Amino acid sequence: MATDPLTETSVFGISLKAETLPGSPSPKQDTILGSVVIPFHTGKPVVVLRERLQEQIDTLPTSYRFLTKQRWPLQLNQEEYLPFKHLINNEGVICIQHHHDNKRVGIITTEGRALGFVFLSDLNLKVSHLRKAINFQLTDVQEFWNNSWVFLDNNSWPLSTKQEEDITVLEVLYNSQVQVQFGRRGGSPKHKVATPILKKDNSFSPPAKIQKVQSSGSSSSEDAICYTQPHTMAPLQSITEADSPTKTNSQSAKQILISYVRAEASEYALDLKAELENLNLSVYLDVQEYFVAVTGRTA
């Protein structure tokens, strides 16, 4: 900062702070956007500083927020109350940062490997909403395809499906990240009979092949799989001793391929596979698993 800030026109540097977490293995350098000249700045609110930046700096982000000298983010509705002298650090620099309407939540494994991030409208949403956001926004991350993963809380304790409906994202968030562990979540237990079918929900459009799977020969629209409510599978008709030997042997030799398009359908496909395997049917899940099975037989 040049000259006496109390009586003279002053000049301050404007720096765009990189969006990195403390302790990041590859911290990014801040970007100097230019400088701003303001006369008699003492006591002027931050909202005045924003106006001067719009006038004097061409490379401002479309949406940004100010940071205090301690690097604390400032909300837009606080700018008219706080004198902008609280933003100036010891080097005479004012820091700003990109601002997003939605919150960014990073996803990391227990080994510390980053898998990506998702946008959430509110960190007070339930963890089950975060799972849906991951399935919808990170469709190209193969680790999430089979849905055999769980969230860990801040004690590294795994969350059950029921707990995901009760706990908020903020409760498992640390440094803008949540931790997941793979291989801890599967289909319905084999000894447990599924509850009745949920009614159809049109907020998602399930693939046609999944919708056509029905229980006990019913053709009602209630047989469609629901994507937005807690998932249950309809009980499938068991193969009993009353069936003829020919029928039993024929069914046990059949191979079934379950194909789906959307990542959020994976949990339902896995549960369906588990139920069919209980009936001694040979079931393959999607193209990758079917390809591996065929290759193994022809090798």
- Taking the alpha carbons of the first and last residues, their distance comes to 73 Å
**Computed CA radius of gyration, to the nearest angstrom:** 28 Å
Q: How many strands appear in the DSSP assignment?
A: 10
Q: Give the mean pLDDT.
A: 73
Compile the SSE list and pairings.
Layout: E1 9-16, E2 31-39, H1 46-56, E3 64-66, E4 93-98, E5 103-109, E6 114-120, H2 127-137, E7 149-152, H3 161-164, H4 169-172, E8 177-182, H5 208-211, H6 245-253, E9 255-258, H7 266-277, E10 282-285, H8 286-298
In short:
The protein is built from eight helices and ten strands.
Describe this protein's structure:
The structure is a single chain. By secondary structure, this protein is an alpha/beta fold. The chain has three domains: 9-98, Ubiquitin-like (UB roll) (Roll), CATH 3.10.20; 103-182, Ubiquitin-like (UB roll) (Roll); 208-298, no CATH class. The protein is built from eight helices and ten strands. The chain has helices at residues 46-56, 127-137, 161-164, 169-172, 208-211, 245-253, 266-277, 286-298; strands at residues 9-16, 31-39, 64-66, 93-98, 103-109, 114-120, 149-152, 177-182, 255-258, 282-285. The strands form three sheets. A four-stranded mixed sheet has the order 2-1-4-3, with helices on one face. The chain has a four-stranded mixed sheet with strand order 6-5-8-7, with helices on one face. It is elongated. The relative contact order is 0.09. The model is unreliable at 186-232 and 238-252 (pLDDT under 50).
